[in-house]
Amino acid sequence: MPVHPQIAQFLSTLPPSDASAPDVAGWRANGEAHLPPVSERPPVHEIADVTVTTPGGEVPVRVYSPSGDGPGGVLVYFHGGAFFSGSLETHDVICRSLANASGYRVVSVGYRLAPEAAFPAGLDDCYAVVRWVAENRSSIPWDGTRLALAGDSSGGTFVAAVTAMAHDDGITAISQQVLFYPSVDLDFDLSRYPSLTENAEGKGLETVALKPTNSFYIESGADSADPRVSPIKRADLTGLPPALIITAEYDPLRDEGEAYAHRLEAAGVSTTLHRYAGATHGFVQYFGWLPEYSGVFAEVADFLD
């Protein structure tokens, strides 16, 4: 199907991308400036901002509790933003929606960003918060059996990397992983995936912008050959937790996310792959309210159950 008409209307207002690196401060400010007021966001039973003390320093997190009932599942969320942007605020609506749909407590991580924080600072923050949740059930009540991770775009990169790091460290608490249109190969060689050329222009995220928007992360020390940076390059994917991978038909990153799903499946990991027709990169964040895409939160809830 063609690009969803309401998404297409929005895309028509965007200027074409080029190969220049974005202005970090301006990009971040723009992302924060176009958020719905709190009164228009999905209500959640309780939301609390707390600070987690980790070996790398203090990490802000936001905890969404959908009800006052006893311990249930917990979902740790890593926001997207090409490793240099995004925040607890920009992804607040996603986390509210996930908490309400799933009944899980959602812990959103405000990890350190490039270029101010060099690799692997942000990744280490995410991993440290997951370990803190796993080891401190008195602080974040959960049932001890359902600890899932989720993230979008570069946050999906962190989900894949953190689950692998936990596996290698013998941590078995992570029950599931959810990746929304993940960036799992920071090589960006155009010959690697057809979607990089098929969806190169006019789809919001444009192929020409991939290297410059990720340059802050790469130049901070992230090596695209490192499986912690490009999880699809991990040699052995066996033993990882079940995965739900969501991709978008008109996303230049579509094929690498789907290739990662196929590699997980080939490694014996229970994997569900769903390509959303007519959608573009970021649709869960920006167009999750459309009827065609609002079911993504229920899909995650079904997967977690």
The ordered string of helix (H) and strand (E) elements is HHEEEHEHEHEHHEHEHH
Largest sheet, spatial ordering of strands:
1-2-4-3-5-6-7-8
- The helix tally amounts to 10
Under CATH, the topology can be stated as: Rossmann fold
Q: What structural class is derived from the secondary structure elements?
A: alpha/beta
Mean pLDDT: 96
Total number of domains: 1
Q: What distance separates the N and C termini?
A: 30 Å
The total strand number stands at: 8
| CATH class assignment | Alpha Beta
Molecular shape: globular
- Please bin the fraction of helical residues: 25-40%
DSSP strand (E) fraction?
A: 15-25%
Query: What radius of gyration results from the CA coordinates?
Result: 18 Å
Regions with little confidence, pLDDT below 50 for 5+ residues: none
Structure notes:
The protein has 305 residues and is an alpha/beta fold. The protein has one domain (5-31, 42-304): 3-Layer(aba) Sandwich (Rossmann fold), CATH 3.40.50. Helices cover 32% and strands 20% of the residues. It has 10 helices and 8 strands. It has helices at 5-11, 24-33, 92-102, 121-135, 154-168, 195-198, 210-219, 254-266, 283-287, 296-304, and strands at 46-54, 57-65, 72-78, 105-109, 142-152, 174-180, 243-248, 271-276. An 8-stranded mixed beta sheet has the order 1-2-4-3-5-6-7-8, sandwiched between helices. α3 packs across α10 and α4 crosses α5. The longest helix is centred in the middle third of the chain and has 15 residues, at 121-135.
